[in-house]
Design goal:
Structural class of chain A: alpha/beta
CATH superfamily of the largest domain in chain A: Aldehyde Dehydrogenase, Chain A, domain 1
Pfam family, one (chains A, B): Aldedh
Largest interface: A-B, 68 and 68 residues
Number of helices of chain A: 20
Strand content of chain A: 15-25%
Shape of chain A: globular
Helix content of chain A: 40-55%
Number of domains of chain A: 2
CATH architecture of the largest domain in chain A: 3-Layer(aba) Sandwich
GO biological process, one term (chains A, B): L-proline catabolic process to L-glutamate
Number of strands of chain A: 19
Strand order of the largest sheet of chain A: 14-15-16-11-10-17-18
CATH topology of the largest domain in chain A: Aldehyde Dehydrogenase, Chain A, domain 1
Keywords (chains A, B): NAD, Oxidoreductase
Distance between the termini of chain A: 40 Å
GO molecular function (chains A, B): L-glutamate gamma-semialdehyde dehydrogenase activity
Oligomer: homodimer
Domain Aldehyde dehydrogenase (chains A, B): 92-497
C-alpha cells in the first residue's frame, strides 16, 4: 500500500473538515497516557534531557561549516547547550535548487503520502517536542504539548489538505472541441500546477512549530523545497519536525534537502540574506512588524506574514460580570500574554458596563478583573502552569515600563514561585487605566502581560477605537461582550471591515486567544497584523502557478 | 422570478465550464444575422454613428464638473467628438464609499443576478460596441465584435462564476461542538466574506473591454464598488458596459455609483491619484510595465496587473513548413501585432528546421514566412480586415525604427489600402534577422508588428533564451513547433518554469494569440508579464477577506 493510500482516509476527513468548519482534530490534544501510552511522557522528557549539551545530529544535511546553538530555557535561565549544523546561505540555496527539480516532479499523491507519513512519525515525538517547547518558549507544559504537538500537526494537516484540494481544482488534461460551423477545432490541453521555487520559512521564538508548520507543509505540498529558518532562541521543536520530514523523504529515495534546517544566531542572522536571494520565491514569516513589513515590499517574491496586532476587548453589557472577569483574567494570564491572540486594549465605557442587576462601574469592573488575575496567579495548582515563563528578557523590561504609563495602575506586575523551576523568568500582568484620548499610548502592541483599560465615552467610541487600531496597526483577535443584538451586529460588522474576528461573550473554558484548526481562520490577512491566513485558499494557491499547454489533436 | 433565478442555469453552466475547461461560450462569437437578428449590425452601426460628436449622456452619474473626450478613429484619423462627464477623484471616491456600504450588504445571489442581467443587456449592444471598438482601437470588424462583445462577456461571466463559487466555499454558519471529556464546548460560528473596498480598474487602448471586464465583474461579484478608468483613447466601448451595469443597478433600487466611469485625458491623468487614494484597496491594470510595476509596489493595496511580455516562437521541427509559415504569418498580421499575445521573438536554429523532406534552412524559412505575410497583406479580401489599423502613432514610429536594427531586414513594413477607410493608419509587419548573441535587441517588448528572427546555435539555446526572456521580461504566450516528443516535453517543462503557456504545432484556423475563456488562463501571473490570471481562484479570492465570528451556544 502506498503512503497515499495509507493516509487517504485522513486526507479526506481533513478536506471535509476544512469546509464543514465544525470541530475536527486528527491529533488528540490531551497528553493522556490513555491516548499516547503510559511511558510517552517520561520517554519524551528523557529524550529531551538526553539531547541537552549535545550536537543535534539526526538531520540528513551533510558537511556543515560548523555547529551552533544559543537556546536558553526561560525556566532555568540556563543554556540548553544543543548545537545544530551550520550552512552558508549559498549552500542552502544550492541544495534547495537541486532538490526543487526532484520534488516538483513527485506526483501530488506521493507528496501527500510522504507529508502525512511525516506527521504520523512526528506524533511519536509529541512529548519530546513539548519539553523542547517549554524550555525554549517558556510555555507551560500543557500549552507546550498542545500548541507544538497536536495543534501544530492539525494545522500542518490543514495546509496539506488545502494544498491537495487546490491542486485538484482543475483537470490535468481536457479535450477542447470548438464547433466552427462546418468543422470543429480540437485541441488537447493540459494544465500543470507549477511550484514557484525555493521557500524560506522564518519562525518566531514563542510558537516555534505552530506558526511555522503551515508554511512548511503549504510549500511542500505544492512542490516547493523549503528552508526552515527558526528563531535562534527556539530551534529544537521545529528541528524535530524537519528531521522527521527528512527521514521520510530518505525512506522514499528522495533528497532530504527538500526540507532543510538553517540555524543562525542573533549576532549573525541569515534571514535577510535568504529572503533577498534571487532564487528564493516564497517567504513565510512570523515575527515583528518592522521585518515583516520589509519582507512584504520585496519584489518578485510571494510573502506570507504574521506580524503584530493590537487586540481588543469591547465591554458593553454582560450577563454575569464575574464569569466575564474570570474568563478575561485567564486570557491575559495565559502564557503571560505572549500569544499573538492575547488581548491588550480593553475598551470600557466611563459610565460602566450594563448587567442584569444594574450598571457595573468602570472602577468596579477594573477591580474585579484585577482580583481575578491575582486569584489565578496565586492559585498554586494553576497559576504557574497557566502563566509559564517569559521567553525574552525584553518582555520583562517592557512590563516594568508599562507601570510608568500615565494612568492608574490597577495591578502591578510581580513575581511568583514556580514550584519546579525556582529560577524561572516570570511576570504577571500589569493593568493600567488609560483615557481614550491618549491614543499614542494604546496605538501599538505592547507584547507581553500588559493590559490597558481604556475609558471611553460609550460603546460606540469603544467600537470605533477597536476598529481604528485594527485598521491602522492590525489585530488578530477581538473579544466583545454585549447582550444587545443591535450592538452585537454593529461590532460584528465594524470589526469585519477591519478584518478582525470577534469572539462574543466568551465565559467558561474557552478563550479569545484560542484558534482552532479546520474552523478558525488564524489571522485574516486583511489588516496590518499579517497578509496571510491559516488556511484559506490563497495560502496555498499563491505557492504555485497554473500553466496550460495545448496542441491540435492529431487526425 | 428573481434575477438570480432567471440566470441560475447560465451560472451553473459557467461554474461547470470553469472546471471542465473544455470549449464553452455563453455568447455566440459570430456576428451573424441568424444569431443576433437581421438588423442588429446596421442598428449598431447607426447607434455608433449617432453617438459621434455628442455627449455620452446615458450614465447615471450626476453633476459632472465638465465634459471631455479625446477619442480618435485609427481608421479615419478624425476625432470621434464624443464627450464624457468628468468628476474629481475625490467625488468619485466619496460616491464609491457611499456605494460600498450599500453593495457589500447586497446578498451574493442578488449581486450575481444583477451582474448577469447586465451582461444580457450588454449583449443587445454588441454591434454598437463593435463599431466603438473598431474606431478607438483600430481592430478589424470581426475582432472588434468578438473581443469586445461575446469574448469579453464570456470573460465577465467567468469572473462572476469564479467569484460566486469562491464565496460559497465556506459555510456562512456552523456549530462547533468540541468534546471536552465530561462536557462539550459549543460555539456558534459564522463566516463573512468581507469585500476589501473601493476597486479601480484601469483600462488599455487596444482591448478596452476584454481586458477590463474581468476586474470590474471580479470586484463587483465580491462586493466591492468599482471606478472604471478607461484609457483616454478608448472610452466608448467600456462606457457602454458601465452604463448598462448602472441601469440594472438603478432598476433594482441600488446606487448606480456602485460602478462609476472615470474619464480623464493624457494631459491630466487621474490613474495615479486614484490608485494612491487611501480608500482605494483594489487596483486592476492593463498597460505598460513601468506603471504596472509601480502599482505593484503600492503598500496596502491588492493589485492585479497585465503588463507587457516578450512572446516567443520556438521552431525545431515541423510536419509541414508551409502550414506553419502560414499560421505564424497570420499571428503576426492579426491586428498588426498589437495583441499582448502576439509573438515577437522567433528562435530558429542556424542549421535550420527539420522537416519530413529534409532540413529547411534558416534563410528558406525566413523567406517562406515573409512571403506568407505579404501574401496575406496583399489579399484584398483578407489583409485589411486581419490587420486593421494602428491604434497609436507611436507604434507606427516604432515599426520604422525596427528596420534600422543591425541585421538583415527580411521584410519591410509598408502601407496598404483599406477599401473602406482611405485614411487609415496602417503598418504591415517588419521582419528582421538578429543573432542570438545580440540579446539587448530582443530583451524587450517591441509593441506592434515587429518580428525578430533570432538565429540560435540549436533548439536548446532557443529554449533557454525563450525561458530567460519570459523569466526576466515576462511572456504571455509561446508558440513551439517540434515533432520530437523529448524536445516537446523539454519545452513544456522549461516554459512552465517560466510560467508561460505553450501552443504546440498550431496550424490551420487556430492561433497562438487566442485565449479562450473557461479554458485558457490568460496571463499566468507567474512571470513579469503580470501578477494576475484570468480567471484563477486568486483572481477573485484576493478581493475579499474571510472573517469569522463566534459565540457560545446559549443553553
Amino acid at each position: 500500500m502506498s503512503l497515499f493510500e495509507k493516509h487517504k482516509p485522513l486526507l479526506e476527513q481533513a478536506i471535509d473538515a476544512l469546509h464543514a468548519r465544525t470541530f475536527y482534530a486528527a491529533f488528540p490534544e490531551a497528553p493522556a497516557p490513555a491516548v499516547y501510552g503510559e511511558s510517552a511522557d517520561s520517554n519524551g522528557k528523557e529524550k529531551f534531557q538526553n539531547a541537552l549539551g549535545k550536537k543535534f545530529d539526526e538531520l540528513l544535511q551533510p558537511n556543515p561549516t560548523g555547529w551552533i546553538g544559543r537556546e536558553e530555557s526561560p525556566y532555568t535561565q540556563d543554556a540548553l547547550g544543543i548545537t545544530y549544523p551550520v550552512f552558508t546561505p549559498d549552500v542552502l540555496v544550492e541544495r534547495a535548487t537541486a532538490a526543487f527539480h526532484v520534488w516538483r516532479k513527485v506526483s501530488v499523491t506521493d507528496r501527500t503520502g510522504i507529508l502525512l507519513e511525516s506527521l504520523a512519525r512526528i506524533k511519536e515525538r509529541f512529548f519530546e517536542i513539548a519539553y523542547a517547547t517549554m524550555h525554549t518558549t517558556g510555555q507551560g507544559y500543557m500549552m507546550a504539548f498542545q500548541a507544538s504537538g497536536p495543534h501544530a500537526a492539525d494545522r500542518a494537516l490543514e495546509a496539506i489538505a488545502a494544498g491537495y484540494e487546490e491542486l485538484q481544482r482543475y483537470p490535468s488534461a481536457a479535450l477542447w472541441d470548438k464547433p466552427m460551423g462546418k468543422f470543429n477545432i480540437q485541441l488537447n490541453k493540459e494544465w500543470r500546477a507549477v511550484p514557484k521555487g525555493i521557500s524560506v520559512v522564518i519562525g518566531c521564538s514563542t510558537f516555534p512549530t505552530w506558526n511555522s508548520v503551515t508554511g512548511i507543509y503549504g510549500s511542500l505540498i505544492t512542490g516547493n523545497p523549503v528552508i526552515v529558518k527558526p528563531h535562534p532562541g527556539a530551534v529544537l521543536p521545529i528541528a524535530i519536525f524537519v528531521s522527521e520530514i527528512q527521514h521520510v523523504l530518505k525512506a522514499n529515495n528522495l533528497d532530504p534537502n527538500i526540507c532543510q534546517l538553517a540555524v543562525d544566531t542573533i549576532e549573525q542572522p541569515i534571514a535577510k540574506v535568504l529572503a533577498e536571494h534571487p532564487s528564493v520565491k516564497l517567504i513565510d514569516f512570523t515575527g515583528n512588524s518592522v521585518f515583516g513589513s520589509y519582507l512584504e515590499t520585496l519584489q518578485g517574491k510571494t510573502v506570507f506574514t504574521e506580524k503584530t496586532g493590537v487586540n481588543s476587548v469591547i465591554l458593553d453589557s454582560v450577563d454575569d460580570a464575574d464569569k466575564v472577569a474570570a474568563n478575561l483574567a485567564f486570557s491575559v494570564n495565559l502564557y503571560s500574554g505572549q500569544m499573538c491572540t492575547a488581548p491588550q486594549n480593553f475598551y470600557i465605557p466611563a459610565a460602566g458596563i450594563k448587567t442584569p442587576s444594574g450598571t457595573l462601574s468602570f472602577d468596579d469592573f477594573a477591580q474585579k478583573f484585577a482580583d481575578n488575575i491575582s486569584s489565578l496567579v496565586d492559585n498554586p495548582k494553576a497559576g504557574p502552569y497557566v502563566l509559564g515563563a517569559v521567553q525574552n528578557q525584553k518582555t520583562s523590561e517592557r512590563v516594568l515600563e508599562a507601570e510608568k504609563l500615565p494612568g492608574k495602575v490597577w495591578l502591578k506586575s510581580r513575581s511568583f514561585e514556580n514550584p519546579m523551576f525556582k529560577n524561572a523568568r516570570v511576570a504577571t500582568p500589569v493593568v493600567v487605566e488609560v483615557d481614550a484620548g491618549k491614543k499614542d499610548i494604546f496605538s501599538k502592541e505592547l507584547f507581553g502581560p500588559i493590559v490597558l483599560l481604556i475609558k471611553t465615552k460609550d460603546t460606540n467610541q469603544s467600537i470605533a477605537l477597536a476598529q481604528e487600531m485594527a485598521l491602522r496597526h492590525g489585530a488578530i483577535s477581538c473579544g466583545a461582550y454585549t447582550t444587545d443584538a443591535v450592538v452585537r451586529e454593529k461590532i460584528a460588522d465594524e470589526m469585519s471591515l477591519a478584518a478582525t474576528p470577534v469572539s462574543f461573550n466568551l465565559t467558561g473554558g474557552i478563550y479569545m486567544n484560542q484558534n482552532a484548526a479546520f474552523s478558525d481562520f488564524h489571522v485574516t490577512g486583511g489588516n496590518p497584523a499579517g497578509n496571510a491566513s491559516f488556511t484559506n485558499p490563497d495560502y496555498v494557491t499563491k505557492r504555485f502557478t497554473w500553466v496550460g499547454h495545448r496542441e491540435p489533436v492529431k487526425l
